[in-house]
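Lecture 7 notes: from sequence to structure.
We start with the chain below.
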Amino acid sequence: MMIASMAVFGTIGVFRANINISSAELALYRGVLALIIIGAFLLFKRQKIDLRAIGKRLPVLIISGAAIGVNWILLFEAYRYTTVSVATLSYYFAPVIVTVVCPIIFKEKMGWKQWVCFGASTVGIVLITGVGALGAGNHLLGILFGLGAAVFYATVIILNKFVRDVDGIQRTFIQFVSAVAVLIPYVIFTGGSGLGSLDGGGWACLLVVGLIHTGVTYCLYFTAIKELPGQKAAILSYIDPLVAVLCSVIILHEQIEPLQIVGGVLILGFTLWNEIDLPKGRRAKRKEPQAENSESNISN
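Predicted structure tokens for the same chain:
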């Protein structure tokens, strides 16, 4: 289930390329469709909703849900302006942001390993940004959207640390409700509905992104995460960006330069090392969504 969910998340950029509506509108419909599936899942599993825990953490859940909505918009915009592979690799700078910010917020000590990972991942971003960026405004803009999405994704990860007493899938449901509540007025005041411009293929892709990529896949992820050791979950979560890069090159026929590949290896390799190579006796922290992905965490 973990492998399937991560592989599906990695294909979302391909489907976004065939949905001719604004990124904000796509994020809204994605959230609405996902709520249908996750709501049905909760009813089917007959999970007891911990209203007390949710009530105590409601302000944080609402804020993190709004961050998820903005995160989706920026990620979809990144797909529009640069290649899926570059957008995805830029987006995966989020764990690096978390590594740097957590010591400030939670008074944690940042060791030599974290500094090495931060430095190497930063070099990776420079390599991805520098290749073809000069004279290619859309490429650079796409990277900036990807990094902006990473900032909001990191925000969700950090805020989720304050709601650990709320079950993952229940937390995601509340966050998605909040995301939809924020996105509805934004879409209304920035152009309204563009569904009339979709053809049959666009409608099919929209339904897949909402129902499968978000609803079904989040349910798979949260079912699997309970059965996996933290390090296995961390390793398997990197199937997402690898599939995204393969889809970009093989299906969409987008080019990726050798230096961008090196940059991607630096980002993914050192963030993975930071997650799983912990001192003896400690388990690697599990990734949890924004909801993407990852997502993770679910990234998308």
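Points to note: Residues 280-296 have pLDDT under 50 and may be disordered. The chain has one domain: 2-276.
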